[in-house]
Each structure stands twice: as structure tokens, then as C-alpha cells.
Amino acid sequence: MNSAPIYISIENKIREFIPRLESVAHLLNAGHTVVVGQQWGLFENVRRLPPGVFLFKKVNKMHSTIMAIAKASNHVVVAMDEEASMCSDDACFAAGMDPASAGHIDLFLAQSDKHRDAINKTIPSLTTAIAGNPQAERLTALGAYQRQIKEIENNCAPYILFVTNFKNLNSSWGSKIRSINDQVRTERAWDEGVLVWEKENIAMMRDVMDWCIENLDKTVAIRPHPAEDISFWVDLYGDRAAIIRGADPVPWMAAADLVIHSGCVTGLEAVLLDKPVLNLEPSPHPFLQTILKEINATVDNAQSARTVISQFLKFGSGPIAGFDPQPALEAYFCEPGGAENIALALGAFVKKTETYDFSAYKKHRRQPHYANKCTITMQEMLKALRSAMKIVGKKTAVDIAELDDSLFIIKRK
User: Fold this and answer.
1) What is the phi-psi region of residue 27: left when phi exceeds 0, alpha when psi lies from -120 to 50, beta otherwise?
2) Considering all CA atoms of the chain, what is the largest pairwise distance in Å, rounded to the nearest integer?
3) Three-state DSSP state, 381
4) Residue ranges of the alpha helices (H) in 73-167?
5) Radius of gyration in angstroms for the set of CA atoms belonging to the chain, rounded to a whole number
6) pLDDT tens for residues 158-183?
7) Residues 2-56: tens digit of each pLDDT
8) I want to staple 70 with a disulfide (CB 3.0 to 4.6 A). Which of 75, 96, 218, 372 is the partner?
9) What DSSP state is assigned to residue 277?
């Protein structure tokens, strides 16, 4: 008898690859077979894959549709909502949840007590458990990034890092409507509200960028959101600032003198890296209430931004230097161990089964946009898995086979 496979999908390699592989390392050590890699091939082949346990990173309308197919194909469905990491109220936690998904999910993994309680209020029938947040936890242990951080410090420091977050207004799709629909956000009020919010934010950020370039003796580095059209920033600032292309933001934040963003999850990540942060937010998000103002110094106009940046860089004082995010972090995040908790939750659903294979799988040709979001070579997988084994304190010999482009079957030898 064999153990049924566990399917772990990755949408954004930069953010998800390392945390996912930490869970994979725990699963392999426990003797499970894991299929891990780009999500599009897995989703296209849900009906053709041997029944197993599927982990979904979101619970929006698109993922809910795939979950329904998975359940009908005799898969167990486990889900989480990684994009809820910035939420501070029930409405924000519930915003990413498609109510129809409740009928397809066997277990929902919340990141904290607050997250679980909010989801239980929204969908009382859903079975939930607290797993933690592996993506947040990876930022407290930078061993895997030390070489990159040192290279950045040697070649680019000192610098101020601007992290942009205008994936609807400056979409890499070339159309803001296509970008919004791709995220399954079709409500007209949401579309218009978010676009107005991003327009206000980008105007303020550009004002502050220009001032920093003209008045500070530090390099300005700009790291656009992966879903943005980077040529917009290259055209505006390519000859005046360092434009970071497609890189993991973690080492760049770790090496920066100051991180500046506009309502972005990097405001949370920078705090977890123990970096000074400034949030530029001329008005609150029209629909979501986040914890950013509880963990970041926040200003609503460019003049205030210039003042607090000067105070911090010249004197090490002011709102940026004096901000204490710990009370909010302790309230919204549970103890470490998320990667192992997720692995234990997935493993608990695995059943013994007859011999199976993946011969029915049909290779899926992805659009270039999706390939840019997640392309993993065999060499990258081997290297990252070794690193993940080291991080979690495991040393398991494995066999790895390529099922598709950027999708791998991994078994313990």
C-alpha cells in the first residue's frame, strides 16, 4: 500500500517557494509523497491526478471553482488565505473568502485566533484550525538570504527602498480591467474605489521619490510589485534610481536604510525584518482595514513624509524611529511553527491507497505572464529543498522527478 499524494501549488515563486518547501521538508521526513510547483498545471489536471490532498493558498471565486472540481474528483481540500496577513478586522479577513467555498473545504488553516474567529463568524459551517504564517516566520531567520544581502550591501548601499503596489493601475497585463478581473474582483464599486486609491497613493509616492532623489545623499531603489508594468518605472526613474527587476524583496529590505511603501504587505514584512518603515497613505483603503497603521509610522501627505524622513535620517528620531509595532504583531500572529503545522494538517488527511501513477497528467502550456510568476528549474528545486531541510532540521534523502514545467514529484528514498 502507498500513501496518497499531497499537492502543494505555488503561484508566486518569489514569495511562496521557500515557505512551501519548509512544509514539504516536514512532509518528506514523515514519508509522504509530495507534488509541488506551479499551480496552473495542477489546476488544469485536477481531474486527472490520483486522489490526494490539495492545499490551496486562497479562497476566492477562482480557487473555489477549482476546489469544487477537486472535491468531485475525490481529493481532500485544505485551504488558507495568505493575503489576510495584513487584516485587522472581521470584514477584511472575510473579504477574500468566497462563501461558496465552504462546501468544498475539508479544513481551513487560519493564521491566528483573530483570523479563525473572523472566518467562523462569516462561514460558521467551516472547519478551521490555527496553523500560523510561514511566510511571516521566514523573515525572522535570514540564513538563506545572507549571501544576497551581503552582495546588495557591497554594491548598492546605502539606499532607501521604495516598494510599489499599483498592480491595478499599472498592470503588467496592459489593462487595468484585465488585471482586476484576473483577481476575480468584478464588482464595479471595488474596481473604481481601488483605482482611485492607487491614483492617490502613486501621486504621493512619486512626490516623495522625487524629493529623496533630489535632496538625499543616498541611492533611491525602487522595487515594483511583480504584477506591475516595470517599464513605467524605468521610463520615469531609470536614469535617476536603481530599478529592481523581479527580485525577492526580502534581501533588498534587509539591506535598506529605510523601507517606504504605500499600503503594501511589505510594510508588515519590513517590520518582521526589524527595519525602519514609512507607510505613505493619503487615504485609507476603500474596503479593507489593515494593521499597517498599527505597525508602521504612517503619513497622509508628502510634506509630512519629507519631515519624518529627514528627522529619521539626520537625527535618528521622529515617528519612524519611535514606532513600536510589537503589541499589534503579538495580537495578530501566533507562535512560530507554521510550516510544520501545515504539514501536520495535510498529513493527517493522507490515506493508504493502491499503487498509482501520474500517467494521465497532460502537460500544460502556460501564458508567459504566469511563467514569469513561477518558473522553477530542477537545479533550483534541489538547492532550495536542501536549504529547507536545513532550516527545519531535517536531512531526508529524496527522489525528484519532473512532472511538468516547474512542477515536481518528490518522494523519500
Assistant:
1) alpha
2) 68
3) helix
4) 90-95, 113-122, 134-137, 146-155
5) 21
6) 999 999 999 888 887 665 444 444 44
7) 889 999 999 999 889 988 999 999 999 999 999 999 999 999 999 999 999 999 9
8) 75
9) E
